[in-house]
Design a protein that fits this description.
The complex is a heterotrimer of chains A (451), B (312) and C (295).
Chain A lengths: L1 H21 L27 E7 L7 H14 L3 E7 L2 H13 L6 E5 L2 H8 L7 H4 L11 H6 L1 E2 L2 E2 L1 E14 H6 L9 H13 L3 E4 L6 H14 L2 H8 L9 H17 L9 H9 L3 E7 L14 H4 L2 E4 L13 E11 L6 H11 L2 H11 L16 H12 L2 E3 L2 H4 L2 H16 L4 H19 L1
Parallel strand pairs in A: 1-2, 1-3, 7-8, 10-11
Antiparallel strand pairs in A: 3-10, 4-5, 6-8, 6-9, 6-10
Helix pairs in contact in A: 8-11, 9-11, 11-19, 18-19
Chain B lengths: L35 H36 L4 H6 L11 H41 L6 H13 L2 H14 L6 H25 L3 H9 L4 H12 L1 H17 L2 H5 L9 H11 L4 H33 L3
Helix pairs in contact in B: 3-6, 3-9, 3-11, 3-12, 4-6, 6-9, 7-8, 9-12, 11-12
Chain C lengths: L1 H8 L1 H25 L2 E2 L8 E2 L3 H7 L2 H35 L2 H16 L2 H12 L5 H8 L13 H29 L3 H9 L4 H12 L1 H16 L3 H6 L11 H10 L4 H27 L6
Antiparallel strand pairs in C: 1-2
Helix pairs in contact in C: 2-14, 3-14, 4-8, 4-10, 4-11, 4-13, 5-8, 6-8, 8-11, 11-14, 13-14
The chains are: A alpha/beta (451), B mainly alpha (312), C mainly alpha (295).
């Protein structure tokens, strides 16, 4: 009895140690599971049954219900399938997906921004190659706008299913413009800055701007970089393996942004959230607001905007500076999309769910329900959308190219250097030179890691 | 500094404890002999300054909290237009909306994790305290040393390895992850707390129990544990305060929205309801009130626990 | 013989605690040292051994130094408030205040310590908000518009604003600890001093301060180690921004681990935190050793 007691306690201790040692494996070694997506046909699941896990970044109560209802509809059509949908917020998603990836718990379907963010998963072998089902020549692929498909293309292969089209526009309050004696949308950045001064004289905050998490400013910089830096240089710099950021256009872009803050906004912006800034545009205190087309719904009566504004706004692209060296036809924006986990046991089923989500009918529902533009061709009609949304769609199709969000197109180090630098520019603690020095250092570090 | 708990100093030696004096020291100004008037004036000024300071601090502490409660009844317009005043009417709907935005869910999670970790922590700590104090386990000194070392190890430092470890054990992203960690990291402190109290229980008590034919196990459950009740309550309260407010582990090791505890959940909610000020205030109020009420109910015990447990 | 066996059996009593401690506290801390010698991230297929590279990175990383500086400032400011100010507060409470009121005041001062840091942090984010915040409105009301700031949005004020919130939250807590210490002072000391004609201020310095020395030591240790482990406050209020001006070691670790995809570097920062807290702990042991501990 006494003996067993003693040996039992040692056994417990030994197992505990064994458990601890088992965890001693090298950190983060991915073991591509057998039977992953690579080895199965994606075109059609043998039997529509099983569980699909899916994580999105659409926890916002404005957007969440759409994804809930579409997944529910799929479950109803296929009773043997359960979709475990988890939705987190935009900001938390960035940590969350990394945590899931590091812990080998990547869901079957996960959200991704276009650019380096998506490429991270591709490089690590965590994204299924969907070329066979969504390539530009496939039946499914043909239903998308080509530019949207291309945004998720890496080395000629397709890795993502675009779910929405999103571009950044400067919305303006028409009656504020009239009151300040401005005849129409400014044709150049210089003109815009002049208009800001007029609006301030008329008692308005020219541009509502909240930069609490740093990304709203990064969208300005994305657009200004595209205007000031030649496209080839830009592509080279945004690639972590070749980034240098030495072109003078970058410094110019930051200086132009500084002008916008000085004349059109305030140095308090870092302490205000983007949404709180938006509130000032909605209630008519601010004359303009730089926002994404996916947010347009918030400016309509249906989205809860006050009538005074809802009937009275239009939008323009952030005007390009005169004589800019870059592409004046570039538009900040990108499709967002979903990727399929390369190690998913149910990859074919996951693809089927995404096909369902991007049928003409569900794409139209996306536009009708939450006012987003879908990359599925012919999905926005006057029946399911409002005028500004349709003209945004027309404008997006006119754009020379998408300037993908700076914080997702390039690697995290560079994005963070920009983020933190620009926050300093707003509050007046950093100059454009400081910012670019920081970015160049980060790019060098990223190059070392990529190399 | 967070409101975690003070580190108990491992001191078996014990002076007689002065129980908190409740008698008032009469505040008659010292009667001087020579400069009575001047001194009296000085004392008056002192008192005035002292009272003023105390009153100011009351305002500084209470006003933000009251503002939070008032704002949770306001409309969005009112928060902007009339930040100082009382709400125009009591909008209980804000609380309903905060509840459905997740506060209730987070609240339940916090209660679950907190109560489970109180149970495990106090139980395991009481066991090990008993083993160390009464049964003179082999290597007692070494074990005590390990516990003492455990007092100084910061959770943040273990973050990244724990991440892998919890996945290996398949408890990542579950209540268990938090319960296990809250227990493991708090055992050293709680053990010392209970141990200090147990040492003071006279050995005759055990001897009497043994003479009655109790095994050590029976003596523990039937005699020692009941005698330790006051310190167990304090330990439970301190653990509650810790687990209820813990943030780092709750942030990193729980990824499912439905399993989040209050501290992290509230932050999440803030990023979802960025411009719905009153609902956010309502959520904060809902999160803060239970703990305040619990403290008001248990404050006497709590203070005694502090008095007993530290710096003896 | 049987007593020896009994003693071995008694190990079962400490086993659960010991296993948990070794597996979840000691092993990860040791493993962290190993991990800090690799370069790896959440997506990496295979970690590469880089030796002390991560530590070199830290040495040349300006934000690492900013973070360390912020932790230090946090510690110093907290010492002033949590040790100096709250001892005075405790003495005032004990010296002046009528018994019933004393209990009420103690309770009020303690309340902020009971609400979680997250609640306090979000609440203060509102107070500091440039648009709805009471702080700016208060300054405006008394005609100090020039002092208004976007408190959490400017590098020069963000960290200070966080520290201020933290003091608000902790002062009642430490004051209560001091009250406990003051109540342990035998009454005769104060009586004797009174007979000698010492006024309240003299008595504070000649009786109270020396007599609560042990509690003071404890609070200093608590405050300093707490200041180097700060995470929650910063995460909730600024997440380290703007321009990384309010990064502390904890948040910088988190940022590198989960946002900059540099787990190895994050482990190296964790090691630095470990060394600092260990040093503080060692001081604590030395100090308490001086008070004749018998094992």
């Amino acid at each position: 009895m006494k003996h067993t007691m003693r040996s039992a306690s040692f056994a417990v201790l030994a197992t505990a140690t064994a458990v601890a040692l088992a965890a001693c494996g090298a950190p983060g070694t991915a073991n591509p599971g057998a039977g992953g997506a690579s080895s199965q046909s994606l075109s059609a699941p043998a039997e529509k049954s099983g569980t699909i896990t899916m994580v999105t970044k659409f926890a916002d109560p404005k957007y969440a219900p759409y994804f809930e209802s579409v997944t529910k509809a799929y479950e109803q059509a296929n009773p043997k399938v359960t979709i475990k949908l988890e939705q987190v917020g935009d900001q938390p998603y960035k940590d969350k997906i990394r945590v899931l990836s590091a812990s080998k718990q990547l869901p079957d379907i996960y959200f991704s921004w276009a650019g380096d963010f998506a490429n991270k998963f591709v490089r690590a072998g965590l994204a299924a190659d969907l070329t066979s089902v969504i390539g530009p020549d496939t039946e499914w692929g043909k239903t998308f706008s080509p530019a949207a498909l291309k945004a998720f293309e890496t080395k000629g292969k397709n890795f993502g299913v675009p779910i929405d089209l999103d571009a950044k526009y400067l919305a303006y309050n028409k009656s504020a413009f009239t009151k300040a004696g401005i005849s129409g949308a400014p044709a150049s950045l210089e003109e815009l800055i002049g208009d800001c001064d007029k609006l301030r004289t008329a008692g308005y905050t020219p541009i509502a701007f909240g930069n609490q998490y740093g990304w709203p400013a990064i969208h300005y910089i994305t657009q200004l970089n595209a205007y000031n830096v030649p496209p080839d240089t830009l592509a080279k710099d945004y690639d972590p393996a070749t980034g240098a950021f030495t072109d003078p256009g970058y410094t110019k872009a930051v200086d132009q942004f500084k002008d916008i803050v000085t004349h059109c906004s305030s140095k308090d912006a870092n302490g205000v959230s983007h949404e709180a800034g938006q509130a000032n545009f909605l209630n008519g205190k601010a004359a303009m607001h730089y926002l994404e087309s996916v947010e347009f719904q918030a400016l309509t009566a249906k989205g809860g905007a006050p009538k005074q504004l809802a009937d009275n706004w239009d939008f323009m692209r952030l005007p390009a500076p005169q004589g800019a060296a870059g592409d004046a036809g570039a538009l900040t924006g990108a499709p967002d999309g979903f990727m399929v986990n390369a190690q998913s046991k149910n990859a074919a089923l996951a693809v089927d769910v995404l096909k369902f989500m991007t049928t003409q009918q569900n794409a139209a529902k996306l536009t009708a329900d939450i006012g987003w533009l879908s990359p599925v061709q012919g999905s926005a009609t006057s029946a399911n959308s409002f005028p500004q949304l349709q003209s945004a769609l027309a404008d997006i199709s006119k754009a020379n190219q998408f300037a993908i969000w700076l914080d997702t197109v390039t690697n995290a180090e560079v994005a963070n250097a920009y983020l933190s630098g620009i926050e300093g520019v707003i509050s007046g603690s950093k100059t454009s030179k400081d910012v670019m020095t920081g970015v160049q250092e980060a790019a060098a570090k990223a190059k070392k890691q990529a190399g | 500094m967070s409101a975690s708990s003070p580190t108990p100093t491992p001191t078996p030696t014990r002076q007689t404890k002065a129980s908190p004096t409740l008698a008032m020291t009469a505040n008659t100004p010292a009667v001087g002999r020579s400069t009575r008037a001047a001194r009296r004036f000085g004392a008056r000024a002192m008192r005035l300054a002292g009272w003023l300071g105390l009153a100011l601090l009351v305002v500084a502490v209470l006003y933000p909290l009251l503002w939070m409660v008032f704002s949770s009844f306001k409309s969005n317009q009112e928060v902007f237009a009339n930040p100082w005043g009382l709400p125009g009417k009591l909008r209980w709907g804000n609380f309903g909306r905060a509840g459905s935005a997740g506060v209730v869910r987070y609240f339940v999670n916090s209660v679950l994790v907190t109560s489970a970790s109180i149970l495990t922590t106090v139980l395991f700590s009481a066991w090990s305290a008993y083993g160390l104090v009464r049964l003179r386990v082999p290597f007692g000194g070494a074990i005590l040393g390990l516990l003492l070392g455990g007092l100084m190890l910061a959770p943040t430092v273990a973050l990244i390895p724990l991440f892998g470890l919890l996945q290996q054990l398949h408890i990542y992203d579950s209540y268990w992850a938090l319960i296990v960690l809250y227990t493991a990291f708090r055992i050293p402190f709680t053990t010392f707390l209970i141990r200090a109290y147990m040492i003071d229980i006279p050995p005759e008590v055990d001897e009497a129990a043994t003479l009655d034919g109790c095994s050590p196990t029976q003596a523990f459950w039937q005699v020692i544990l009941p005698m330790c009740r006051p310190i167990l309550v304090s330990a439970a309260l301190l653990q509650a305060l810790f687990a209820w407010n813990e943030f780092v582990f709750a942030l990193v090791f729980i990824s499912t929205g439905d399993l989040k505890t209050l501290p992290v959940g509230l932050m999440d909610m803030q990023s979802r309801l960025l411009t719905d000020w009153p609902v956010q205030f309502a959520g904060l109020t809902m999160a803060a009130l239970p703990m305040i009420v619990l403290f008001l109910i248990g404050q006497r015990q709590f203070l005694r626990g502090l008095t007993d447990g530290i710096g003896k | 013989m049987s007593t020896t066996l009994m003693r071995w059996r008694s190990l079962a009593w400490v086993l659960p605690a010991l296993v948990l401690l070794l597996v979840f506290v000691y092993y990860p801390i040791v493993d962290n040292l190993r991990l800090s010698l690799f370069s790896w991230n959440a997506f990496s297929v295979a970690p590469t051994f880089v030796g002390l590279d991560n530590y070199r990175t830290a040495f040349h990383d300006p934000i690492f130094w900013t973070a360390l500086w912020n932790n230090t400032v946090f510690a110093v400011v907290s010492l002033v408030f949590q040790v100096g100010f709250s001892l005075v507060l405790a003495a005032l409470l004990e010296e002046f205040v009528h018994q019933r009121l004393r209990g009420i005041l103690r309770t009020i001062y303690f309340i902020p310590a009971v609400i979680s840091i997250t609640v306090a942090g979000i609440l203060f984010s509102f107070l500091y908000n440039p648009e709805i915040g009471l702080v700016n409105r208060l300054l405006g009301a008394v005609g100090l518009e020039s002092w208004q700031h976007s408190w959490l949005g400017e590098p020069s004020t963000a960290m200070g604003s966080i520290i201020a919130m933290s003091q608000w939250q902790s002062i009642g807590y430490t004051a209560i600890l001091f009250v406990v210490g003051i109540q342990r002072i035998p009454k005769e000391f104060h009586e004797a001093a009174k007979v000698d004609g010492a006024g309240p201020i003299r008595r504070f310095f000649s009786v109270t301060v020396p007599m609560v020395r042990e509690m003071t030591t404890l609070i200093i240790i608590l405050t300093v180690s707490g200041a180097f482990l700060v995470f929650n406050e910063v995460m909730v209020m600024t997440a380290g921004g703007p321009s990384d001006s309010s990064q502390v070691l904890g948040t910088w670790l988190y940022r590198n681990a989960f946002l900059n995809d540099d787990m190895g570097y994050a482990s190296a920062i964790a090691t630095v935190i470990f060394v600092i807290t260990l040093a503080i702990g060692a001081v604590q042991i030395v100090v308490s050793r001086r008070r004749r501990i018998q094992w």
